[in-house]
Amino acid sequence: MHKLRHSMLSSLFMAAIPGLLIGFMVGHPGWILGLAILIWGIYQSHQFGRLTDWLQFESEKEPPEAGSHWGELFDELSRLQKRHKSREKYLRSVITRFQQSSAALHDAIVIIDRHNNLEWWNKAADRLLGLKASSDRGKPVMNLLRDPRFIRYFKKDNYAEPLQLISPVDPEVQLQYQITKFGQGDHLLVARDITRLMRLEQTRQDFVANASHELRTPLTVIRGYLETFLDQELPRPLVRGLTQMQQQAKRMESLVSDLLLLSRLEASNQISDEQSVQIQNLISQIHESAAELAREKGHSFELELDQEFDLLGQEIELHSAFSNLVYNAVRYTPANGHIKLRWWVDAAGGHFAVTDNGLGIDSIHIPRLTERFYRVDESRSSASGGTGLGLAIVKHVLARHSGQLSIKSKVGHGSTFACHFPNDMVVRARATEDDDDHTESMPA
Ligand code: ADP
Known about the structure:
- There is one protein chain.
- The protein is α+β, with helices and mostly antiparallel strands.
- The protein folds into four domains: about 1-100, no CATH class; about 105-195, PAS domain (Beta-Lactamase), CATH 3.30.450.20; about 195-265, Signal transduction histidine kinase, dimerisation/phosphotransfer (DHp) domain (Helix Hairpins, Orthogonal Bundle), CATH 1.10.287.130; about 275-435, Histidine kinase-like ATPase, C-terminal domain (Heat Shock Protein 90), CATH 3.30.565.
- The chain is built from 13 helices and 13 strands.
- The strands form three sheets. Strands 2-1-5-4-3 form a five-stranded antiparallel sheet, sandwiched between helices.
- A hairpin with a 2-residue loop joins β9 and β10 (about 350-355).
- α1 (about 1-25) runs antiparallel to α3 and α9 runs parallel beside α13 (about 390-400).
- The longest helix is centred in the N-terminal third of the chain and has 37 residues, at about 70-105.
- The chain is elongated and about 150 Å long.
- It binds adenosine-5'-diphosphate.
- Adenosine-5'-diphosphate binds next to α11 and α13.
């Protein structure tokens, strides 16, 4: 540009100086200089006109031929134009490839802008979510995907866990939604068809449930015969063998009933009919059985129970989850241990915690404790009579009650297993039998 300006100025001088000289020679320097500058100006405006015509109407073609700085300007603009076009071509090809590859994807991909309106989606989104390119672009996502669970998930703004829902277009199709935030408040929604996966999962669950159910009858028969045999006068080695068989049969029965319970819990991630569960009574019952179990070990118990609040849920399931935690504390605490059971309510919700001063657990095991059959110490767990399914049951029961399990532990010092329930699961306890029958939700 600097060079151009320089060349323009020199062309002006080239016109002015001869004009001035001729002007002096003919005795009218001013007139002739003015005439020369006028001719120069007309030439410049003519070239400028050619330039604008070329830019407006013929920029596809080669630039017009011109002398001096106009030629340089045309060439420079033509070079810029070519560079711009090749870049545009490259970007177009990138967009086309991206659109082709995302169209070929089986997963639905939807881009939602920062105002929560639909911006772009691929073909799979038409098929799986029923979005229509002709009418839905720019519409709020929550007007089109109207399932309240999706709306709650979208608004929650925490997308660490995916959401599973039936497709809005086909009730046979199960979808898994996962949202990722990007840019300035934009969202990328990916919906995967997981129907096949869910069917396989269902088959697995049905198999475990059926196998456990089928094992029950033969086990009852075996246990019955073993009991009858042990009632007889038998030689000592036979009694020892039969007693061990009886213990193992009992263990198998516990395993079968835990497996059955787990497969029932897995069938749905929400409880269907919730009642107000009297938590103080429930914990007191569990405490009584645990104290019986702990008598030989000489454990002491401490109870700290909030009398004012109960919990909404299913009593049998809560009993099973809480008792698993309390019995674990009894089992994994050496003789003369201390176990504390606590139920309290605060601004975050309701909490039940079991604290023991037992063996404790190394932190590397904690993330895996709720996996089925995961044991910190195989020999110790089998000897204690556990099935390896207790904490998996606790996790499922809590998930069905919108709750969470937290585990704090220190090797050699003990552990605290706590169940946390949200505010809307907590209700005021009924003070006496004569009081009003209804339950009242806890204020947030
Ligand atoms: P199990 O039937 O083996 O007790 P769980 O699922 O109930 O199975 O527990 C898994 C593992 O977690 C146990 O094997 C044990 O090693 C550990 N565990 C559970 N509760 C405690 C506790 N209170 N103190 C120490 N370890 C525990």
